[in-house]
Amino acid sequence: xxxxxxxxxxxxxxxxxxxxxxxLGEEIFKRFFSQTNPTVHKVFADGSLFSPMxxxxxxxxxxxxxxxxxxxxxxxxxxxxxxxxxxxxHETDEGYILKAExxxxxxxxxxxxxxxxxxxxxxxxxKQQRDSSDWRCGHWWEYGYVRxxxxxxxxxxxxxxxxIYNDIFxxxxxxxxxxxxxxxxxxDVA
Length: 190
Fold this sequence. Notes:
Elements: E1 5-8, E2 10-11, H1 26-33, H2 38-44, E3 64-65, H3 72-75, H4 77-81, E4 87-91, E5 95-101, E6 110-115, E7 119-125, E8 144-150, E9 161-165, E10 169-175, H5 178-184
Parallel strand pairs: 2-6, 3-8
Antiparallel strand pairs: 1-9, 4-5, 5-10, 6-7, 7-8, 9-10
């Protein structure tokens, strides 16, 4: 079995200032999720990075969530105990690593943006909108998916790397700033 991987371009300038204009409310999501589309169920199901219920209560995946403020074992414990998690993250002395399964999309549809050095945005599209307007400003969840995660203060956002493995496994590496690395290793930074 061969494994293919591809380094993704991490975009640091956002050309779409008014995206995610339509939020995803809980009732709207329930109606949308009741469809029989298997891709929708894979992408938004419990345990997926893009599930509005990922952290135990409903919230719009396009809203930034401070993932890094929590202990990973506590934050994702209910997902790990149910064996449904398709996302994991951990911290090392050098940085943070986020791994997630991105089902039904392929490497050409995944985008990683860094918004003003504070938020990592992972998004993708699985079907084309009929008109030429930006799919993100309509009912974006009908055409794709998004998850916005606040970065830790010690992140070196200019050196983020993203990789896709076998067209479905995403890995994002967020290094710590050199000063943060020196502090964690007990070096004098003065």
